[in-house]
Amino acid sequence: MNTLVQLVLSGILVGSVYALMSIGLTLIFGVLRIVNFAHGEFLMIAMYGAWAFTHLFGLNPYIAAVAIVPAMFLFGAVVYWLIINPALDKPHLVVVFATMALSIFLQNVALMAMTADLRDIPPIFNHSLVVGSIHIKVELLLGFVITLLCTFALQWMIRKTYLGKAIRATVQDGEAAMLMGIPVPRIFLITFAGGSALVGLAACVMVPLFSVFPSVGLNFVLIAFVIVVLGGMGSIEGALFGGICVGVVQSLSSYYVAPAFGQMFFFILFLLVMIFRPNGLLGQQGAATIGMNE
Amino acid sequence: MSALLEVRHISRAFRTTLAVDDVSFEVQPGELLGLIGPNGAGKSTLFNLIAGVIAPSSGQIIFDGKPIQGWKSHDIARVGVARTFQIPKPYRQLSVIENVMLSAFLREKSVAGARKLAETTLADVGLAGYGGSPASSLTVGLLKRLEVARALAMRPKLVLFDEIMAGLTPTEVGAMTKFVAGLPARGITVIWVEHVLYAIMKTATRMIVVNRGKKIAEGTPAELARHPEVVKAYLGEEMDLA
Amino acid sequence: MSTETIPSLNPARMAVFPTRGRISWFEIGLLLICLALVMSGIASNLQDVLLLSFLFGGLALAWNIAGGYAGLISFGHSAFFGVGAYTSTILAVRYGVTPWIGIWIGALIAAVFGAILALICARLRGPFFILSTLAFAEVVRIGALNWSSLTGGAEGLSIMPAPDLLGMVFASKTTYAALMLFYLVAVYAITKGLEASRFGYYLFAIRDNEDAAGAAGVDPLLGRTAALALSAALTGIGGSLFAQYFLYLDPTYVISPELSFQFALLPAVGGLGTAIGPVLGSFLITPLSELLRSYLGSSAAGLHLVIYSFGLIVVMLYFPAGLAGALEKLTRRGRSP
Fold first, then answer.
1. pTM
2. Where are the domains of chain B?
3. Helices marked H in chain C — which ranges?
């Protein structure tokens, strides 16, 4: 019984961290109606960045976030300017291939620069929090807290600020938003760059928990897609909900299911979600319609 | 003579909104039935229900003696129901004639046969010279005609026209009206949703008016022009629509 | 069968440059050049490049049936490649079945996998379809890796390098080159036939506007399933041929995302949705790839992929119609109206 509670709890905590890395993706979907296939590689690059900060300057990744988040914002803006924006007015498969190619590009640049070796940072906190017989890694709890804070901050921004309203308008109807004087191209840029910055924050929170290697992005991008589909496109609360679901399922299955098949199990889970709930558990428009330009 | 199409107590709900609310009507072979109503009345939903794009929440649709509610759109197309789309949906990477050939393949299995049928149909709707042009190069008016051509190339028993007049010049409207009016004589029954009222009032043998998902009136165009509910639905006040 | 379903071979109706549904002088010329290259006595390492260009040309064409014609962009086709390769190899190595038969069994099983993928992804469009193909391939790869009793797992599976006609192992690279060219020509012929046929048109319709296709009586699920099954079968055959040439299989290379990317890259660069496009793409990229690999060797793991992916980004953004599109533009300018 205690094992179960432990598993569910760590599942919720890890899930929230997964949610953090998925929020950027869901926002980009909702606003630009495109998929960034290099999303996982953005995370990977940011994780290497956070690792490098820790390794070179002895800072912990939470402090490194101060540099990584703006750096990722800039990175996202550059990618948007060079690749996404030119692809937007072309047939949909252009952005698919371009971001897919970007994913391979980043993976192999990382491979050349960092080799395939796994990179970890030394543990930051030397003991876990202990409540009864439940152990909670402090890094995990910190990740959970940061995610919640971030989600609240984003929700506030979306509901209370002009930028937030502009984003919501663009999600609902890009053309109408443009006719209303909303600078949609700039909203696109801000959303893309902002989504990348969020990935940067997620990376800083994840580096104490996961190893980095060039193809680590593939695993996480699939998790992110499952989360986005479960929670519904463009929904921040949905991402949190989806993240927690995924975290709990993964936590339970990696304990009760054979480890050799653990990774495959996750891909199978992804396919099952795609077969049975392409519209998400919350019933919003999802896999069936996104990506259609007409 | 039994009806070609019977719509019995069809309803369709989207979450909490009832887009179509207990609508029933019949269409006899050879009729030209007009379907009108203000925006948001549920006309498109009704079309999509008959054409199999969505399934009804309740009720039945009987076509040619067969219950087709819940059938997929391609199965309904195969038993003889053709439809146009309000916003044209051409195959952009194919030429105009190839667009029509796709529909012609329902009746002609060979490429040569389909091409012939497509050529005839294009000439029929006045698109004869455009066969080789890419579909993406056509203007909205011509695309609407392409929609009509695609529907007719299926040699349907029943055709559903969804606002084929929108975006046409007055001359084009006149030509298209005459064309549609001639279809029943060729053995094609028509259900026509249209906003360009005078076209439909002139040609329809019978009309149905829907508002807010419900059928509010049924009758000849002359009867409906004076029907107070209809006038109110469109204009909110007493006025002569004829 | 109407003569229209076979590309016209009447010289009076032949086009100069590749046109949908008709044979052109360009294609005939290219074929003759390929034949000449096979029969000429070029250096051994160049022969490798040649036969790989042919093989990947065929693989690119196979991918294109699903990706370019039906609009089903898959980044998981290496699964089918692997299924074909492993099936014929396991049958040969464990049960003594000659690959000349084993290849067809491999194609059949690959087709079944293709159909399964289509059914799994029946309701998926756009990026979710693509991601599902990735996930699917990963499931197949990890399965192959772990099911060692069947596939040999990470240690891989080897074919005896002894030349043997029945075992489809040849001493001469020329023979392999001829075999691969035959594969390329066969898949090309199937592709050309497809694009002039009713089924081909159905695929274009599903690709360009699925709603309209449904309204015209086309069953999208059936079309998608058939396209993926055919594409998978042809890819599987390529996989078996590869196994017979390379004589060693291991899941990490044979069912990899990198290989899947390659299958999509070649048609994309060459021109999606055309028959000549994937061929041109392979003839450009495969030699480039081998060149990069030989010059850079193992010192820069991934450098060739860095260069490709960069090139693909550029091509996608500035030449979305690929090489075939550029060719078409050139010919349109040269032809009188």
1. 0.88
2. 1-80+159-179+191-242, 90-155
3. 25-39, 44-64, 78-95, 99-120, 126-146, 148-151, 173-195, 198-208, 210-215, 220-246, 251-254, 257-270, 276-296, 303-318, 322-334
Provide the pLDDT for residue C8: 46
For B94, name the nearest residue in chain C, comparing CA atoms only.
C204
Distance CA(A21)–CA(A40), nearest Å, equals 9
Interchain contact B106–C (C-beta under 8 A): yes
Domains of chain C with CATH codes: 3-334 (1.10.3470)
- Provide the chain A residues 206-235 that lie in CB contact (below 8 A) with chain C: 214, 218, 221-222, 225, 229
State which fold the B1-80+159-179+191-242 domain adopts.
Rossmann fold (3.40.50)
Contacts of C74 (CB under 8 A, 6+ apart): C63, C66, C67, C117, C130, C133, C228, C231, C260, C263, C264
| pLDDT at residue B198 in the model | 80
Confidence of residue A59 (pLDDT cuts 50, 70, 90): confident
For position C4, what pLDDT does the model report? 35
ipTM for the complex shown: 0.90
Query: What are the CA-CA distances from residue A60 to residues A80, A119, A122, B47 (Å)?
Result: 29, 15, 10, 62
Q: What part of A 265-284 touches C (C-beta under 8 Å)?
A: 267-268, 270-271, 274-275, 278
Q: Average pLDDT over chain C, rounded to whole? A: 87
In chain C, which residues have their Cβ closer than 8 Å to the Cβ of B106? 216-217
**Sequence spans of domains, chain A:** 19-217
Question: Chain A residue closest to C126 (CA)?
Answer: A291
